[in-house]
Amino acid sequence: MKLKFIKLNIIYKLIGYLVIVSVLPLLIFAVSSYDVVQETILDLTSEYSSQLVSNQRDYLQLQLQQVDNLASRIATIDEIGDVAVKTDASNDIKRDAYDDLSTQAEIRQNLNLYSSLKGVTSIDFYTAKGHRFYVGETLSEPAVDMHVRDVMYRTALASDGSLQWLSLGSKLYTTPNAEKLLTAYKIVWRYSGDTQLSEPVGMLLINCSTNYLFEHFSKVDLGHGSYMIVTDAEGRVIYAPDKKSVGELMPASLNDWLLKGDVKSGLHADNRDYLVSLAAIKNEGWHLFGIIPQKTLLAPMQRMTEIVGLLIVLSSMIILVASHLFRRNMVAPIQEISKGFRRIQEQKNDLIEHLPVPNSRDEISELVVWFNAFVDAHKIRLQYEEELLESQYKFSGIFQQAPIPLGLVRIENGQFVDVNDVWLAQFEFVREEIVGRTSFELNVWVDLSERLLMLEQIKQTQMVSVEVRQRAKSGRIMICILSGRPIKIHNERLFIFSAVDITRQRETEKEIQEINQQLESRVQSRTLKLQETNEELYDALESLKLTKGELVRSEKLAALGSLVAGIAHELNTPIGNSVTVASTLQDDTRDLRRAVKDGNLRRSAMETYFDIIEKGTELLLRNLGNAHDLIASFKQVAADQASNQRRSFDLKETIEGIMVTLVPMYKKTAFVLVSELAPDIKMNSYPGPLGQVLTNLVTNALTHAFEGRKHGTMRLTTRLIDETRAELLFSDDGVGIPVENLPRVFDPFFTTKLGQGGSGLGLNIVYNIVTSVLGGTVQLKSEVGVGTCFIITIPLSPVALETHS
């Protein structure tokens, strides 16, 4: 039934095959070609459009640069600045005609130097007080909106001195139906000998025609139905194919496409898809758009689709005709041949007959001829099948071509029937020496007991696989895996076996065993060395911990010593002033006593003495009061840092006392410490460790943050986060910390000033005190070139600690 099903459907399979090999590839080619051609056309057009738009951008940018150069050149002419100052100084007095003509001549002369600059219609120069010098194509000066001019003047003053461009939406010139102009403006500065500074003396305006740009860009050919649009920084149209749209905002769809930022996407507007190329003048914020309708680009693809459809229809018709011819001339003869082979398979040899040979001289007729020849050969094969079967066993090529040594012996007497070439090569014999002889005669066995063991195993299992030692003709001893089993050929019992040489394998295994023993010995030796090394590392770690503790104590003592030195320096001023006042009072008292003794005492002298006494005591009280306050702050801070006792305190007052002791650290530098401390934050904590934290932060900032800086600011702020926590924020505007160093900042002994006084423990102490003693957290934020910020969050009343350091 299966063969019948195949015969009945062979035509449909042929049709399917022809469809697969002809129509389907054509469809695949058409679809892939369509996509490839479409993508290629769009890519080439996009590349061409982008290059063309970029060229126009470069041309426009060159024109803008020449306008900038012209403005810079005119602005640096000293005579123009002098005339502006002179004109403004004359107030309402009639202007000097010579100054007007010379200024206009200077401007026109510089304009003539830029012969490649096209489209400049006029140049206006306004002094600081509004006096105007006009150079244009006509003698009449166009009217100007003064408010717009003032806004332009203020904008130019606020800029960095670069050339500014007025948007087309701002109407500077009020003349009706006037041409729309692009106006560039720039402040003219003049050095003043009186103030030794550069002062603004006027504003230069350069007006460029949009008509010239329209004529230029109208000549750019992007293809049929394609066009360009140029917009300024505010999105006003500078050029468009419709001249009436100049000065208006760009189309909303184009603006949305620009804001989207995906320059590779297409533009959909007016129910059409467009390919858009963009080029920008970044300094001015101008944009050039090349817009090409995709329908125009893909018009040739429609013709290609029609041709492919026609080819598919034609191919289908050809397939139908070919299928009919194939059935008549090929399928029918093949069906008859198939029936013949089925009869051979069913061994219906009496029904097998020759087939009539077709008249056609093709492969089918040859196939019928060959089938008839096969029928004849089949009949002959049946006659000689038994002889061929015996010959097949005896002369099998498999036995001789096997890659392992094989042998065949008679079980009855042990004589060799045959061996293959691999066995001969392994045992160094030739075939004539082997056939008809036994293994005893060839002296192959080294130990005959192994042969007896093999025979016993054959009797029990009818198979053998043992490891034995055998001898080659040269006397070389081999270790072999002997495998075999009995077989029966033509009623004769034979034994087929293989003898695989594994001598090298056994030698390798022995070498590996010896190497393993050596490795075990080495592992034991290295294990002992590793234990000794671990002990040495443990001792070194303990020593390192002791050293770290000593360095931490040294850091605290150094901070306390710095505190004492700073307080001593601060006390020197009020105490020195007090000594000076006291010595002065002593000298005046001696003079008064001498006058009383000599009888020359006068009332005026007494009044003078009393005034001195009053002012002197006032100075003494003030200076001694300052010294008293400093000593009180020092006593409190020193006591806190020395004792590390927990007590209740006001955060603002405690930090202010600590800051007083830190002033000497930066007093004689260009760096300052600014504080913004929130009031009424009551804490029950450890003020001593808190002072150590602030001291280390200031020391770290002065050491690292302002390297290479001439000035800088450290800032300390506090705030109450909630009822249980407060936040301290210490920041600087220094050089910042590199990103690769941020994870290691709080590590002990990490410093970028190794060998320059840095121990690498400052911030590690800060981290340990905040997280362990104060029970809080510390976060670090830093950016190179901007600065560093430490954010410390601590509880108002931390959990009591048994010990802290």
Describe it.
The protein is an alpha+beta fold. Helices cover 54% and strands 20% of the residues. A hairpin with a 5-residue loop joins strand 13 and strand 14. Helix 17 packs antiparallel against helix 18 and helix 19 packs parallel to helix 20. The longest helix is centred in the C-terminal third of the chain and has 96 residues.
Question: How would you describe this structure in keywords?
Answer:
five-stranded antiparallel beta sheet; 805 residues; alpha+beta; single chain
Helix-strand blueprint:
Blueprint: H1 2-8, H2 10-75, H3 78-89, H4 97-113, E1 120-127, E2 132-136, H5 146-158, E3 164-166, E4 181-192, E5 197-209, H6 210-218, E6 227-231, E7 237-239, H7 252-260, E8 267-269, E9 272-281, E10 286-293, H8 294-297, H9 299-345, H10 363-383, H11 385-394, H12 397-401, E11 406-410, E12 416-419, H13 421-427, H14 431-434, H15 439-442, H16 448-461, E13 464-471, E14 477-489, E15 492-501, H17 503-598, H18 603-643, E16 647-650, H19 651-666, E17 671-676, E18 682-685, H20 687-705, E19 712-720, E20 725-732, H21 762-773, E21 777-783, E22 787-795
Parallel strand pairs: 17-19
Antiparallel strand pairs: 1-2, 1-5, 3-4, 4-5, 6-7, 6-10, 8-9, 9-10, 11-12, 11-15, 13-14, 14-15, 16-18, 19-20, 20-22, 21-22
Helix pairs in contact: 2-9, 17-18, 17-19, 18-19, 18-20, 19-20, 20-21
